[in-house]
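Researcher: Can you fold this with 5'-deoxyadenosine in place?
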Amino acid sequence: MSRKIYIKTYGCQMNVYDSERMARLMAAHGYDDVDTPGAADLVVLNTCHIREKAAEKVYSELGRLRELRDGPGGNAAMRIAVAGCVAQAEGEAMLERMPEIDIVVGPQAYHRLPELLALRARSEGGVVDTEFPVVSKFDSLPLEANAEAISAFVTIQEGCDKFCTFCVVPYTRGAEVSRPAADVVEECRRRVEAGAREIVLLGQNVNAYRGDAPDGGDWSLGRLIRALAEIDGLDRIRYTTSHPRDMAEDLISAHRDVPQLMPFVHLPVQSGSDRVLAAMNRRHTVSDYLRLIDRLRSARADLALSSDFIVGFPGERDEDFEATLSLVRAVGFAQSFSFKYSSRPGTPGSVMPKQIGEKIKSERLQSLQELLARQMVEYQRASIGRRLSVLFTKPGRHAGQLVGQSAYQQAVHVKTECHRIGDLVDVDIEHAGPHSLAGSIAVKSSITPQSLALAL
Ligand code: 5AD
Ligand code: SF4
């Protein structure tokens, strides 16, 4: 009998990827994906715990689901599962706060979802599984490629040992674990066979990757990228998210040597003040970061950068915040994400003295975001008149329009009748908005400098 599953995903790309894999696992148990929760037999909320707001959103969604299930004319058969980092962090406490939840499952236990459903059917109340099992979920979740993905996410590393003092990830996702290199290469090969032309390697600290290698020993991310570049038909490789401390020389040089490796790096710096960086336990200084950017740009001059920033970390003074603005001006980011510091229970930051008030946090966030937005617009405008290579990934909103990505991770809209999703084409950029570019297919000129010289 066919059943229906609805999965709602919050937070990072890792969750997007995990949701895809849960959907595939449950498909093998007879569950079809649906777009709305109303008639679903199983609703999964794949949650994010990184900031307080993200976690609170989950509780309001749970309230709405409870209405859909228990309200008048509701779908009484609906099972509600909470997955992801809120599940991991709160565990049993979620059932106490909301006994209507059927399953609480942490990010390391998704492969047990069918068993947990069976267990729930036999038990009185909700069931919880937030174990970190010995057998990694990498080995237990199905890998079949999703044929539609032109740009495919592949998780190669999970967890984090860095313990930045604001962050819950080391507690919710556990210690750093890398997938064996041969498994990664095999999955990427399969995804390319199924139509992917771009692979995005994912990890909480992806550049700390150290995977068991086919030849014994282990491979770094730089080494893995060089191996992936051998796969026929794989045009683009990206990776995210990186920590400045783990930016090894062989990864930097891969940006110079491997044409398939895209010239875009998301390299969060969080703050531009050495005092705040130390209090955050980032274990690098501002000048370490700037030197790293120089090395990356020497390897690949056109490299675009993006970063995450936190304003209002405990003890952040005006001059610390000014230093963050200076760093932003010095680097020039193509994109960025910035957040108000959110105190997370159990992290060292939450008990630090000199917590910053909401008003100051909001003011700082606003000035930082204004500066970052100006940089982003400048970066986008500088693309006008350039010829960029674009990989088409989806249809546009208008007829005859396709949307793709430039090498620098900009969305590009193009009107074309003669191309398809999956094509990699040169586009002459004519317009730039803050979030996307538009242009037309480049007309290949048959005049080369040599033929011109001959003609003259
Ligand atoms: N408060 C605000 N932002 C945070 N981030 C992580 N933890 C917190 C927190 N407690 C941000 C960091 C990180 C991004 C994924 O989320 O900038 O790089
Ligand atoms: Fe969190 Fe820091 Fe680890 Fe990133 S490096 S996941 S911010 S602890």
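Model: Folded with 5'-deoxyadenosine in place. The first strand starts at residue 3 and ends at 9.
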